[in-house]
Design brief:
Layout (H helix, E strand, L loop, with lengths): L7 E7 L12 E7 L7 E11 L2 H7 L20 E8 L10 E4 L6 E5 L4 E2 L14 H11 L7 E4 L7 H10 L4 E5 L3 H10 L4 E3 L6 H8 L4 E6 L3 H10 E9 L3 H4 L17 H7 L2 E4 L2 H21 L6 E5 L4 H9 L6 E5 L4
Parallel strand pairs: 8-9, 8-11, 9-10, 11-12, 12-13, 14-15
Antiparallel strand pairs: 1-2, 3-4, 3-6, 3-15, 4-5, 5-7
Helix pairs in contact: 2-3, 2-9, 5-6
């Protein structure tokens, strides 16, 4: 060990179980001891960590078949983070000063195995960009749906962490028309003027299917779906022959305020007759797609950012004391793009 970390640190804990959506009052900043790293371990001082809607599912209860554990009362939250190694145990292979990503966000310092860290390279111009969810958009549009020149692409939840990048990616891949959905007219303006969308469907008096049909009168070739529910149902109705659907999120279930919702399901009524007769394919995003696409995405994302062909919409919320409120703000849809908590470096 080449440096000594602080003896205590602060973490965000779940202190009461929410009956519906989690809010700031269900979370608390807790001071806890920070052991020295043992063999093969490191202590990382976090610089940024991601606020993401999947936490609602992990907090919500008994989600099955997901690769992450549930968060119980008394547990610290977790998720993607970027930080700097401040102490390294023997045999860790890392040194103080190394920049890494890992999954123990929602705390100022993380003690973890060095094998659970990924050293940062210089593929991206800003370390916070490593917390983007763009790989889901990229893999969905390339590996799952295979965007082709002149395709009409629909992205649901277009103002979120995935969708705010997906419209730009679709455009760079050659899509002819890109349509998004969002709950906010204000966000719709930004999606059209800055983030690659030709048209945006927002809530209104007409049924969603009618509003989508007006935005895509000739139908859609590709769907990148982060919402599910009614929007997925309507996308099937709008699909052209041979349409390809990439399902990468379930915000309609994760962010549902209904009393019987635990964030672990997103039911949608699908016209299977139409799926069959039009030859529509539906593929779900998996951890394999993530691992196989990350390096390629980082390379292209970095090139696009440096050339100015793409922007990374994100919000930095300063200080761990504001982290509980940041999750509530995300759930309420107050921000566009990726939401991160930025920790002061002392």
């Amino acid at each position: 060990m080449t440096a000594e970390p602080p003896s205590t640190t602060r973490e965000i804990h779940l202190v009461t179980a929410p009956e519906q959506l989690p809010g700031a009052d269900h979370l608390s900043v807790v001071e806890t001891s920070l052991p020295l790293p043992g063999p093969g371990q490191v202590v990382v001082r976090n610089q940024y960590f991601l606020v993401f809607p999947g936490l609602r599912t992990l907090i919500g209860g008994e989600a099955k078949d997901v690769p992450l554990p549930s968060v119980r009362v008394g547990d610290a939250l977790f998720g993607p983070a970027v930080g700097e190694v401040v102490a390294a145990g023997p045999g860790s292979g890392l040194r103080p000063g190394d920049k890494v990503t890992h999954l123990l966000g929602w705390r100022e310092h993380a003690l973890l195995a060095a094998t659970d860290c990924a050293p940062l390279d210089d593929a991206l111009p800003d370390p916070v960009a490593y917390l983007s969810s763009g790989v889901a958009a990229y893999a969905g549009l390339t590996r799952l749906a295979g965007v082709r020149p002149h395709d009409t692409v629909l992205v649901t939840g277009a103002a979120g962490a995935v969708g705010s990048l997906a419209g730009q990616v679709a455009r760079l891949l050659g899509a002819g028309r890109v349509i998004g959905t969002t709950r906010s007219p204000h966000k719709a303006d930004r999606l059209r003027t800055e983030l690659g969308y030709d048209a945006v469907v927002v809530p209104g008096t007409a049924p969603f299917a009618e509003r989508l049909a007006a935005a895509a009168p000739d139908g859609i070739d590709v769907l990148l779906d982060t919402v599910g529910g009614e929007q997925l149902t309507s996308a099937v109705r709008a699909a052209r022959r041979g349409a390809r659907f990439a399902l990468v999120g379930t915000l309609s279930g994760q962010l549902s305020p209904e009393p019987d919702s635990d964030g672990a399901s997103a039911p949608a009524e699908i016209d299977t007759f139409r799926i069959i007769t039009l030859g529509i394919t539906l593929r779900g995003f998996s951890s394999a797609d993530l691992s196989q696409s990350t390096d390629e995405w980082n390379k292209r994302f970095g090139d696009w950012l440096r050339s100015g062909e793409m922007v990374f919409p994100h919000v930095r919320i300063p200080g761990i004391d504001r982290a509980p409120g940041a999750l509530q703000e995300l759930i309420e849809g107050r921000h566009t793009g990726t939401v991160v908590v930025e920790l002061p470096q002392r």
